[in-house]
């Protein structure tokens, strides 16, 4: 058996994303070939009892309770940042000082200014870097990207995306702490814009090119919530809902909407692209399907078809089971990791995963959206 190079991971944060990534680390080698084998070397969390239990459950060789110690360890090659958004920049900059590769959760940072410092640091160091915009790597979404990249849609006129949830409607929900840090602007940077729309924007930019200008509105429906840190009611400064219009560099128009107040919706992420020749539609609730309309089909047979992207020729599907069986949300993380490993094996290959610079472009769109909502004007998006 040939010796593989080890990629020793240090994971910081073991909440929702810590679990999805740990699952990807354990699965990737079974389904994707690489010269690298991923080693779950250490996990870091602040609570020793909990982090130890997580390390045992997910087979990490060791644990730390101080992320700076983990970053400084010589037996770690890559650090995975799975903490709330306010810590991404600080941890990433420390990783660069210690020569670690970085896999960072989205959004890249609290704002574009932080993001620019992160991009400068990783690019000067030459260290491989990735941001977990995972939805790109679902077979149906990658298939949509490939169809558009082949020019099959012809001229593109429209892009529209939604990401709807309903979990913050109760006034009793506090802000701060595990999971609920999302309601605290100090920890999250923004509300649905950085949390949910960032995903829609990443996918849109990947498939349809850069967004050049935006006009947005936001609302904070519940103005005060108890903060878990103080027990006191405190102003809520995140955007609970955001809708914006956008113009793409290719001349197409877009409309994006996200809210956590759409009663009945848990994670309704959909996008639709309308081109001169064809249209595409995707829905996270039916994530293996890509809806496809081809105007080139004779008129009496024309209609929306539903492609179940589970055949061997669909992206990533052939690495798993037999045609017709389903993949799930968790596979998107495995696929993104496989793309990262592919480029570690051969750095001359074209990157098919979002790096810090791409994520900075998305951050700039988010910043422009929030600025437009504040000013009530169209705002041009800064180039990354
Ligand atoms: N890609 C996606 O689809 C997706 C989905 C959810 C969250 N996210 C992103 O992932 C990140 C984490 O979100 P989550 O849902 O996993 O949050 P979470 O609240 O479930 O987990 C956060 C973890 O970070 C830990 N943590 C916080 N401060 C820390 C510190 N100083 N040192 C060590 N550990 C610390 C917490 O204890 C917890 O384990 C966020 O940036 C979020 O935007 C991405």
UniProtKB/TrEMBL annotation:
Residues 142-280 form the GFO/IDH/MocA-like oxidoreductase domain. Residues 7-127 form the Gfo/Idh/MocA-like oxidoreductase N-terminal domain. Keywords: Oxidoreductase. The keyword Oxidoreductase applies. InterPro entries: Gfo/Idh/MocA-like_OxRdtase_N, Gfo/Idh/MocA_oxidrdct_glycsds, GFO_IDH_MocA-like_dom, NAD(P)-bd_dom_sf. PANTHER family: BCDNA.GH03377 (PTHR43818:SF11). This is D-apiose dehydrogenase. It comes from Haloferula sargassicola. The lineage of its organism: Bacteria, Pseudomonadati, Verrucomicrobiota, Verrucomicrobiia, Verrucomicrobiales.
């Amino acid at each position: 058996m040939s010796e593989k190079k080890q990629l020793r991971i240090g994971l910081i944060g073991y909440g929702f994303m810590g679990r999805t990534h740990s699952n990807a680390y354990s699965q990737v080698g079974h389904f994707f070939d690489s010269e690298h084998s991923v080693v779950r070397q250490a996990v870091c969390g602040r609570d020793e009892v909990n982090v130890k239990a997580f390390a045992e459950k997910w087979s990490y060789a060791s644990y730390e309770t101080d992320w700076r110690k983990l970053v400084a360890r010589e037996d770690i090659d890559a650090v995975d940042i799975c903490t709330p958004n306010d810590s991404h920049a600080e941890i990433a900059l420390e990783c660069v000082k210690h020569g670690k590769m970085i896999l960072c959760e989205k959004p890249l940072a609290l704002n574009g200014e932080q993001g620019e410092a992160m991009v400068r640091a990783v690019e000067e160091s030459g260290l491989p870097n990735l941001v977990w915009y995972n939805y790109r790597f679902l077979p149906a979404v990658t298939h949509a990207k490939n169809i558009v990249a082949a020019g099959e849609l012809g001229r593109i006129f429209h892009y529209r995306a939604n990401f709807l949830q309903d979990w913050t409607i109760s006034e009793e929900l506090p802000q701060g702490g595990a999971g609920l840090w999302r309601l605290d602007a100090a920890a999250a940077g923004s509300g649905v814009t950085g949390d949910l729309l960032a995903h829609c924007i990443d996918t849109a930019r990947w498939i349809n090119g850069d967004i050049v200008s935006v006009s947005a509105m936001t609302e904070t429906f519940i103005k005060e919530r108890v903060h878990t840190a103080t027990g006191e009611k405190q102003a809520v400064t995140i955007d609970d809902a955001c809708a914006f219009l956008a113009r793409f560099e290719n001349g197409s128009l877009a409309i994006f909407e996200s809210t956590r107040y759409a009663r009945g919706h848990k994670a309704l992420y959909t996008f639709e692209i309308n081109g001169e020749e064809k249209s595409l539609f995707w829905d996270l609730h039916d994530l293996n399907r890509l809806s496809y309309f081809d105007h080139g089909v004779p008129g009496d047979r024309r209609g929306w078809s539903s492609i179940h992207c589970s055949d061997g020729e669909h992206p990533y599907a052939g690495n798993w089971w037999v045609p017709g069986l389903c993949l799930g949300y968790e596979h998107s993380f495995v696929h993104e990791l496989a793309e990262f490993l592919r480029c570690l094996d051969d750095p001359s290959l074209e990157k098919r995963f979002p790096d810090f610079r791409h994520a900075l472009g998305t951050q700039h769109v988010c910043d422009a959206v929030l600025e437009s909502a504040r000013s009530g004007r169209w705002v041009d998006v800064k180039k990354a």
